[in-house]
Amino acid sequence: GSKKETARTFVIPKDPPLPVDSNNDRVDSKKTNTAESNNGASVKSRKKKKKAKLNGQAIFGMESYCSEGEVQNKLLIATRAGGLFSLDFTSNAWTDYSSWSEQVVASSDNEKPIIINPSSGSCAGVHPTGKYAAVGTTEGWIVIVSIHRPFSLATQSHSIKNVAFHAPPFRPVQSVSFIDDSSLLALYARGSVIWFKFDHSPAPLHVMTLGTTGIPLSFAFDGNGEMYIGDSRGNIACFDLSQTWQAKEGNLQGMKVKEQRPNSLLAKVHGKEHVTGITILESSGVMISVGNDGCMNKWKRNTNGQLQKLLSIPVPNITGLRHVWNVSQPNGEESLILGGFYGNDFVMLDNLNGYEFLRIATGGRQRRQDFFFCFLSKSSSLQFPIIFGMAILTGQKDGHNMIDFHCSHSFDKSLDMLGTSHSARCSDHYHSSYSLGSPVHAETINDACWVKNSDFIYLLSGSNDCTVKLSKFENEIFTSVIELPPHESCVRGVCSSRRPNSNSSLLVTCGGKLSMEFYILDQSSSTSLCCVALLCSYRTLEKASIDHRMNTVKATPLLPYEKQCHFVLSGDSDGNLHVCVVSEHATTRRTTIGKMIIGSGRPIICLELLRCLGKILAFVATTGGDISLWEFPGSIVFIDGNGGVNNLDGIMPTSPTYEYQAHQNGINDLSLAIANSHNSTDEISVIICSVGDDQALSTCLLDFMNASHQPHGLLNPHKTRALITKSASASALKAVKVVADAEFYRIYTTGYDEQITLWNLDINPDEVFVKCISSSPLGTEGSCIDCLHLEHADGSVRETIAICGEGMELMSLNLNFLRAAHKLRWANYLLITAGAGCSADSGLQTYECAPAEYRDMCNPSKITETDNTYCFQQFWLQFTKSYLETTPHKGYELLDQWCHGGRLQHLKRPELGDLDQILATPCWVYSSNVDGHFRLFKSFSDSSCEIHGRALEFRCACGIGFANDEPRLGMEWDQWNKNMVSTDSCKHTTVQMSQNGLVDRLNSDDIFLCNHCHQPMRPNVLMFNDTDENVLRTISIQRKRYQTWEGIVEDEVAENGANLVILEIGCGVNVPAVRQESEEVFLDCAQKIKSHENGSEGSVCLIRINPKDADIPTNVHGEHSLDSISIASTAATGLNKIDCWLRALDGC
Predict the structure, then answer these.
(1) Distance from first CA to last CA of the chain, Å, rounded?
(2) How many whole angstroms separate alpha carbon 883 and alpha carbon 949?
(3) Which of 266, 490, 570, 678 is close enough to 464 for a disulfide, judged by CB 3.0 to 4.6 Å?
(4) Contact (CB, 8 A) for 754 and 804
(5) Buried b (16+ CB within 10 A) or exposed e, 410-435
């Protein structure tokens, strides 16, 4: 069973004792409904009596139901001894109702009592309200029994009586189902179906006869008068009830209803197997049926009103289908959920995506069972059914019966959560709501690749179930799926090829019998609709067996691009290569002509193509563990009707130009990337990563020179660097992907260990190094992997990784954090620019969130107003108190560890000669914050430029009335300067505020005065319109030291190839001074690097961390976009994530 499944066991109560009949006035139902004669009874009496068997409890009816206003939480049991019981799943309690076969009155015939033989019970159903049940018998009677409170269908005078009705001569009753509150459908074993309408008493509304030899088993009603019925011989009949449908509101008592034949009959839809379920797709009007043949059939009514079969689809994971449910997803689309058996296991799965929701071991598919489920409404993510339940009847040797109830683990809790606002009743015609994540195939996905057009993204996948799917990817979820024609055998490889700036992509699939199919995906940017069309197919001249297959395929555009042709190469299980040239324009010929190159004889498992120095290089891997290099022409001369390989501009190879042994055993996957970032036309380095059954990761770096410099004009590597990482996994590795990104190379691997591992690849002139960074568990054995880069509006670049195997899993990685960590790891100098957002995670307010009073009190003139001096000081003393009481968030500690703790190992001190040694630090802080948090850490205590001062210091306000040594104009300033008598001590003295001193000041009613001139004190903070020369002097000294350091560092970068990182944290756009400083330093340094006469190897990188305004303007990043990184995050979170990557890169 499922991990989210639990099971309970209940013993069914004993049957009531059989009654002794002494009432001669009652009508014997057996006499009135059967044609059995006394002769027949005597014949039976003359038969030899068999040995008596142990009399056990015989159960003929079992159905789950819900009471009014509740979810489905009860189970009804009916026995052939007259027993009628109800099990409440929430309280685990049984309710014993009165015998369904006793105290029965006929609904007609003056409600005379009748005798119902309890052993004739054949089926049972529950009314939608859960108030009463209907019991059918082999004699044709249907008995209505109250299971909620005393009930009489005709009058309240018989509240304790059960009511029975029948429709002679139809019998026996096979099953009963309520269509609505006032209608019941009875299916009879002899091929008839009767619709009973409850008015004053039940009466037939429609009598339908199939006219087949089968027994009616399933039905669907569309609500508009169309009834579809399936039988035990695979037939489906359609009845048009619309003409008599309108009579349902009339008085049916005494009406004689005409027997109706099918308007249309679809014979042997499911062979001769049972039709077990039917549903109708409301959006298209297509009917869906399932049966014991394991197939799902689609059919519809044509223009003549006749049933027409459309498609028969075998369901590979279910051999005997029992249920089909039409459910709706949150986007409004209809989907089909199938239920049935695989062996003795009950399986519930999504038909379109092949997702298996649950599997329950029943112990035998012939046991009586009942199943229900419910999905959580208004969900947008993959989920397990919030409620499911399956009751399985099990007989015991002692004659007793037990109910094994399998349900969701949180069944009781889910019932309480759903309450009365949801209904979990899920019959064949119930519309539930659910959501599914990534679309998957029914069997293992062998290959998948991202297909990225100018505006839209798809994932192309192929599977062992012979299907190919093209899934549209929007907003990080799959929104729709296009089914491509299935292969005759399994699909082993898929790929795509797209010309630059084109809206069309070539799609290629390959698999069994050496088949390849070519499609064109045409996506116009003006519409969200895409068009997939078949171009042609590839078949070999000799007929291939089903075991002879293409294992892998790759494609790349040919030059010149305007010819719209693609080079396609595939490898087969005999070790041969198949070459095709495919045009994007369909021709009259639907089969393309290719060329087969005889290989080594070992099966080719994987290959990759790379355009290199005007050629197409093919790296081919086999089961022998070797990788061979093949060189193909990279351009096409002309196009003819056949589009063959003879049109290539060059000679086709007959043997590889280079080979090397990468693994001891077979290679399962390989991946390529260009290593060097410079745009050399004469030399190029290629990274080849491969994985195999030997659990090793092989990394090889090949350096190529232009073919014109090589003998015979062939590309041969002139330098090779290789590394084999043994025991890279606990089991065989199946897939690998190498990504070269701004000189940071990474490798993803996955395999049978159900882990995805990230490796860091470092390249030196003489060797390569591979180091494991991190790993994460998967829910599938990854057989293929592909990466996709997506740039978001906030400037972040996410790498979405699709890992496919027995299912599909998507993982997303914010590359900006990884890139920032990589830049910081190699930094020689670090400039930290910080705004108010840097301290927001400590609990301090930013300028945007500050109260209106803050803007008022940021004006130094307030202290000159006698009425406001005390309020001004109290306001700032409160702020100072909050700064002292606030503990800096973890990000400050991380920055200190990077700089002083040695985390950034490449930081260095510049050679400053006789200059102040305080400047000889690799890290400086440029901040607009006044909380003084940076100075609490050793790394920044003497290397901080606080351009707005510090609120933890107070000083004499004697200088606020002057600007540039001149008195400020205005009456308030004249009076202030007249009363001011300052000394040198006033100008150069600051008072460091402590916690105790602050409490005293806040509790005092006196104005805080200078000890030297006895004038009011002010915070050592630069405010709006502030010209206090004493505050400015302190800031100016810090700024001058900072600018000296900045100039030296810029020269180090330009002249000596140093690396500078500008880490901007929490700098907003409302007060952009620090933000502008970051950009100015970045541009100045970049310009010096660019204009260096001998070419500088130095670098500068701007990392901007801001939750709302992380974007970097175009005029700033420009051509240096690779050196500017936007991180949309708060300070603490952003720094912590970068630190995690730093630890991973360092192996901590």
Answers:
(1) 41
(2) 14
(3) 490
(4) no
(5) ebbebbeebeeebbbbbebbbebbbb
What are the tokens at 642? 């056949």
351-372 residue pLDDT tens: 766 678 888 999 888 899 999 8
pLDDT of 714: 63
CA distances from 978 to 956, 971, 985, 1015 (A): 16, 11, 19, 12
- Check if the beta carbon of residue 700 is closer than 8 Å to that of residue 712: no
Contacts of residue 149, defined as CB under 8 A and 6 or more positions apart, other chains included, come to 131
Dihedral over alpha carbons 977, 979, 983, 987 (to 10 degrees): -50
CB-CB contact of 466 with 488 (8 Å): yes
Three-state DSSP class for residue 652? coil
Radius of gyration of the chain (CA): 41
Q: Which residue type is seen at 590?
A: R
pLDDT of residue 522: 83
Token pair, residue 946, equals 């606080």
Q: Using a pLDDT cut of 90, give the percent of the chain over it.
A: 44
User: What is the residue-wise DSSP string for 923-971?
Assistant: EEEEE---S--GGGSGGGSSSEEETTEEEEEEEEGGGTTEETTEEPPSH
For the beta carbon of residue 900, count every other beta carbon within 10 angstroms.
17
Q: Which two tokens stand for residue 747?
A: 């490798």
**Token code pair at residue 757:** 């591992």
Q: How confident is the model at residue 23 (pLDDT cuts 50, 70, 90)?
A: very low
- What is the pTM (predicted TM-score) of this model? 0.65
CB neighbour list of residue 737: distance below 8 Å, 6 or more residues apart? 671, 689, 747, 748, 785, 786, 787, 801
Per-residue pLDDT, averaged over 681-699, amounts to 90
Q: What is the pLDDT of residues 217-274, one digit of tens each?
A: 999 998 888 999 999 999 999 999 886 654 444 444 445 788 899 999 999 999 899 9
Pick the closest to residue 520 from 501, 530, 535 (CA basis).
Answer: 535
Q: From CA 928, how far away is CA 945, in angstroms rounded?
A: 8
- Tracing tokens 């859960």 back to the chain, one arrives at 130
Q: What would the two tokens of residue 749 be? A: 């691997």
Distance CA 805, CA 754 (A): 10
Q: CA nearest 6: which of 426, 414, 413, 405?
A: 405
C-alpha span between 751 and 1027 (Å, rounded): 67
Give me the residue label for tokens 């990534």: 438
- Using alpha carbons, select from 755, 757, 754, 735 the residue that is nearest to residue 746: 757
Closest CA to 424 of 439, 407, 401: 407
Coil/strand/helix, residue 24:
coil
Closest CA to 779 of 751, 757, 807: 807
Six-digit token pair at 575? 């070790």
* Among the listed residues 470, 380, 462, 374, the one whose alpha carbon sits nearest the alpha carbon of residue 422: 374
- pLDDT tens for 418-470 read 443 333 333 333 444 555 555 568 789 999 999 998 778 999 999 998 899 98
Average pLDDT taken over every residue of the chain? 83
From the list 106, 107, 104, 100, the residue with the least C-alpha distance to 80 is: 100
Which candidate, 69, 72, 131, places its Cα nearest to that of 390?
Answer: 72
Give the contacts of 400 (CB within 8 A, at least 6 positions apart). 11, 12, 14, 56, 57
| DSSP per-residue codes, 582-635 | EESS--S--B---EEE---SSPEEEEEEEEETTEEEEEEEETTSEEEEEEEE-B
The answer to whether residue 820 scores a pLDDT higher than 60 is yes
Task: Kindly report, residue by residue over 105-136, the tens digit of the pLDDT.
Answer: 988 767 788 999 999 999 999 998 888 899 99
CB-based contacts of 515, cutoff 8 Å, min separation 6: 487, 488, 489, 537, 538, 539, 544, 550
